[in-house]
Specification:
This protein is α/β, with parallel strands linked by helices. The protein has one domain: Rossmann fold, CATH 3.40.50. The protein is 47% helix and 15% strand. The protein has 8 helices and 7 strands. A 7-stranded parallel β-sheet has the order 3-2-1-4-5-6-7, sandwiched between helices. The longest helix is centred in the middle third of the chain and has 32 residues.
């Protein structure tokens, strides 16, 4: 039997690369996408991946035509995936009083939101026609409440959660599943510059294994690790006055150039 195929964006490092390794070990074939396609190739060579079990597509998810073309190339070269994971994302601190940061906000939404929808787009109709498939949006616990200095990322991940929920309802009767994964803190290049404590920090491989299990079960929504689900729920229900006081003086995310 043919190996199942997973399509992963942001596969050049961090969570995306860990997911690729996890699925490869489980016997899947890989369709890997990133702007830095050379880094994926170097990783695949270092890991001695079988050439027939993976393909690399250079694409920028912030460029709709680019990521749609990558999906179409995957369909033509490798066929229709069983799982599509829209993982690529950026996280940069912003200050609305700074003009340049408005451009950062626009780029964040283009990558984390429009890019996610564009990642799914080439596969939706074919999955519906087949009557099966799983579309996975990587959101974040940060999407559950706004954090000072982190407005672009928090807002974009809140939008991922709502978008995937909407898409899940649209596809409910089609046989195509939509899974929302909300990571807590994972030790990746995206988080290593954070200036604040990161409770329940996971290694990328730990996160990937738990995420793959949730995806395999078709879970509609999963926070990883589970401890962060409790933390997020408590923060969600805090009155605004207490929430604001709790975060007063908290170090902010690095802005672009810092």
């Amino acid at each position: 039997m043919a190996r199942p195929l997973v399509f992963i964006t942001g596969a050049s490092s961090g969570i995306g690369q860990a997911l690729a390794a996890c699925y490869y070990r489980a016997g899947w074939s890989l369709a890997l996408t990133a702007r830095r396609a050379g880094e994926i190739q170097a990783w695949a060579a270092a890991e001695r991946l079988e050439p027939g079990r993976y393909a690399v597509y250079a694409a920028d998810v912030a460029d709709t035509a680019s990521i749609v073309a990558a999906g179409q190339q995957c369909l033509a070269r490798q066929g229709l995936p069983q799982v599509v994971i829209a993982n690529a994302g950026i996280s940069i601190g912003v200050d609305t009083a700074v003009r340049e940061d408005l451009d950062v906000i626009a780029r964040t939404y283009a990558t984390n939101n429009v890019g996610l929808a564009a990642t799914f787009h080439p596969f939706v109709a074919a999955m519906v026609a087949r009557g099966s498939g799983t579309l996975v949006g990587i959101a974040s616990v940060a999407g559950m409440r706004g954090l000072p200095g982190h407005g672009a990322y928090c807002a974009s991940k809140a939008a991922v959660i709502s978008y995937c929920e909407s898409l899940r309802g649209e596809l409910r009767a089609s046989g195509v599943k939509v899974v929302t994964i909300c990571p807590g803190y994972v030790d990746t290049p995206l988080t290593r510059q954070n200036r604040y404590a990161m409770p329940f920090l996971l290694l990328p491989a730990q996160f990937a294994e738990r995420a793959a299990r949730a995806i395999g079960r078709g879970s509609s929504y999963r926070v990883i690790p589970w401890q962060m689900a409790i933390v997020a729920a408590l923060l969600r229900w805090l009155p605004n006055s207490l929430f604001d006081r709790l975060l007063a003086g908290r170090p902010r995310k690095h802005r672009q150039g810092e």
